[in-house]
Amino acid sequence: MPKSKRGFVYILQHYWQLYVLMIVPVVYILIFQYYPITGLQLAFKKFDYALGMWGSPWNGLDNFKKFFSNYMFSRIIINTVRISILNVLVTFPFPILFALALNSVNHSNFKKTAQTLTYIPHFISVVVMVGIMRQFLHPRIGVYGSIVYTFTGDYPKDPFLIPTAFDPLYVLSSVWQTFGYESIMFLAALTSINPELYEAAEIDGTTRFQRVMHVEIPSILPTIIIMLILRVGTLIGIGFEKVYLMQTAMNLQTSEVISTYIYKQSIGGGALANYGYATAISLFNNVINFILLVSVNAISRRVSETSLW
After folding, report:
1. Does residue 303 have a pLDDT over 80?
2. Beta-carbon count within 10 A of 268 CB
3. Which of 22, 136, 156, 164 is the most buried (most CB within 10 A)?
4. Residue 155, SS3?
5. Residue 1: per-residue pLDDT
6. pTM as predicted
7. What are phi and psi of 196, to 5 degrees?
């Protein structure tokens, strides 16, 4: 039978083993990826523990209206956007610069050592990392406090109690933890550059800096654009764990973001938890992220002809 005329029944009879192997991952995806989507209906319901998710009464857009009219709305959005943009602006260039610098090193042992040392922080859990920060920056027993006391004779104020210190603490710790591991993608892109481009550049008498600017950066630009699109697509989806662990009663005005607010309105709210309200906020957050992802992808496709789709 010609290949073009083979139907699904024929393919199923001859390749049924492949379909059997697909059953487990397909069932897993349906249960853990698609079925939870049904929980979005809580965003439009007044959740009642006794009635459950399916039996709770509908309340339309009341949960969204409650969030938009909440006095915390503007503060949460501003904090989330500010921290996210600052985090992207500061952390995104570091892996690229590190990859370019490491690619210029000819000493293999030094390169391997540098890669190992910079990859390690990525594998430290967020809880441990914040614990290290708190110990290091402790005003009395920490390295920071000891240095300040040595030079001034006074103990400094705890940085975690200073609202304006939250942003630099969050961003700088993110740089330290992520730049080494995230450079792997750019190092892989650099290794795929055609050696003839380097040879042509050397024949033209270019310097090392000129080769970086005119050979390496243009060659890895598509990778940079794709990674930037993915980062912007989660711009207001800033992670929960690290922010929550770094929060204190004193810095809450600058550290309360959408993810931590959702937690406090749901699981963290205890008996006062409002799951319908929290689901509405989460849905709003995801819709904005989706719009950002589509918009940035469209702009990139028009400007550079590089996009996710």
Report:
1. no
2. 14
3. 156
4. coil
5. 44
6. 0.83
7. -65, -25
